[in-house]
Amino acid sequence: TRAVHIVFGEWTCLRLAVENEFAGGGTRERALALLQRVLHALLNSQKVHRDELEEMLDLALIDDFNIEA
Known about the structure:
The protein has helices at residues 2-10, 12-19, 27-43, 50-65. The chain has 69 residues and is an all-alpha fold. The two termini are 24 Å apart.
């Protein structure tokens, strides 16, 4: 859990999205919701598949923050 919080805190494109409100006034809440979805996926799975996590993050960046990374 701590590692995910650290990575999200240092993730440049997500930090810029929040600082510049790429998704409007609720950008910070969307970022926190994404963090919770990632934590839930990691903690509730015996085996984490990198491609599934990558797809989740990619779709969230595009749909929630208008970022293509």
